[in-house]
């Protein structure tokens, strides 16, 4: 039996459906903080620095400030929405409640691109480091990819308790590495000599100023705006925190605390790494093309003699993000599958460990398939994996942010009476600012030929996903907690033990 609503069909399921898709509560504020910070922290080890070549140090500073403002608007909006709608669906559930099934699905599809592709990019960087450490040939890199996915998907499948414990440990270790660098760099920094050593050549490209002392904005304000997509890597994936809502001990209390504390931590770390990494020997010009900026910073301070040990230090930060985004990937696929948007078998959880193993394995398989297809099917495959896939993740994320900020605005207007344990101090203006800055970031992505290849990849992903939903998925929807809330107009809640079952709220 099915119920027709807005061009989609809801099919009835018995209680065993949700019993096979149960999650287990474990996470407190510390675990949520670690989940958010750990997902992002690899961006402080590498990736952000490419913006220096587009903008110079001062331009990168402006870009980082603007992107930090965008993420503050986003995270405070999410901090309000997530305890009001404490569902694993997160971004999809916010848009589903305010924009209907199609809006929810498209938002979920955008986030799906981000959470499937981002760990693929991170594991590529991990394999590059490991190849350097162990002296293996470039052709061996796919072996590292498969090995890392097997190990960290396995850790996430074993149980939510272990997953969060590993997340906390590797996140603290990554922050300890950054702190060690900051302490080491401060007595060795020379800001004017190294951070301001980028000038503009006759061809309009960056050139090195041997004595430093260059302009803060060698490429002007447009250069600063062009660096915004690179600054995104200092904060990308902090928004994954609400995916842990159904595994949080008290999401209405802990979720806002976890995401706000995580954002504060990342802001401090982002500006410290931008200042100090650029202010030691070799400086901003060398960093602008470096694949290992933190490692280069350590080398500038301590020399090349301990390069392999320092490379292991850098791998810790990459592992932190890889492990935590695999967690998010699994929950994101699980939530869309449980509601019927993706094939339902993907939401089945382990009988005793209550982890969405099918979703995590499927996400890893898709990511590996894309990586291997590029690796064996294209010239300069390393450049494509490090560039095209990274840009796909950023583009998908920006669209998702626009949809989530719009959902915040609509939720305030259409559901004014739902309980809001936390309210964003920035309100609707903060969400509008998030949308505006995300649109500017997309504009400069489209202006860069490298980013356009990623946009084409996202377009293909969307075409496949939308075609599946239009033909099959929209006829197989289920009243999961996210759907129950949206269908009831905000009057339904749910309770959880080990299994999640929708129930009506008390009057």
From TrEMBL:
Pfam families: AA_permease_2
Membrane association type: Multi-pass membrane protein
Keywords: Cell membrane, Membrane, Transmembrane, Transmembrane helix
Subcellular location: Cell membrane
Keyword Transmembrane helix set for record: yes
Record-level GO cellular component terms: plasma membrane
Domain of life the protein comes from: Bacteria
Molecular functions per Gene Ontology: transmembrane transporter activity
TM annotation in the entry: 26-48, 54-74, 115-136, 142-159, 166-186, 216-238, 259-285, 305-328, 357-377, 389-411, 423-444, 450-471
Primary localisation category: membrane
Alphabetical list of Gene3D superfamilies matching this protein: Amino acid/polyamine transporter I
Coiled-coil region: none
PANTHER family found in the cross-reference section: AMINO ACID TRANSPORTER-RELATED, MEMBRANE PROTEIN
Record's protein name: Amino acid ABC transporter permease
